[in-house]
Amino acid sequence: MDKKDKIIESQPNNPLHGIKLKDIVEYLVEKYGWDHLGTKINIRCFKNDPSVKSSLKFLRKTPWARDEVEQLYLDTIKFYKK
């Protein structure tokens, strides 16, 4: 069993498994736009001169913000899949 198999086995119920943070941010920006995204999640990287690159840099260093972005993504795809 290689490293990838171990990761897959360790997260069988993780809905975000295999989804890149970049894909999540791009999806949310496409769905909401930067302005609305900045009101849904109050973080500076979504409000002041926003870009995917700067957002990823911040989110990778800030666990609470990443958690909020990931939860919004899950809530959004759950809502729109109905």
Give a verbal description of the structure.
This protein is mostly helical and 82 residues long. It has helices at 3-10, 21-40, 44-47, 52-61, 63-80. It is built from five helices and no strands.
Nutshell version of this structure?
The protein is mainly α.
User: What is the average per-residue confidence, as pLDDT, rounded to a whole number?
Assistant: 86
CATH topology: Transcription Termination Factor Rho, Rna-binding Domain, Chain A, Domain 1
Going by helix content, strand content and strand pairing, the class is mainly alpha
Let me know the largest β-sheet: none
Q: What multimeric state do the chains show?
A: single chain
Low-confidence stretches: 1-8
Number of helices: 5
Run of helices and strands: HHHHH
Q: What amount of the residues lies in strands?
A: under 5%
Radius of gyration: 14 Å
Count structural domains.
Answer: 1
Query: Architecture, according to CATH?
Result: Orthogonal Bundle
Count of extended strands: 0
Distance between the termini: 37 Å
Distinctive features:
82 residues, mainly alpha, Transcription Termination Factor Rho, Rna-binding Domain, Chain A, Domain 1, 5 helices, 73% helix, 0% strand
Topology:
Elements: H1 3-10, H2 21-40, H3 44-47, H4 52-61, H5 63-80
Helix pairs in contact: 2-4, 2-5, 4-5
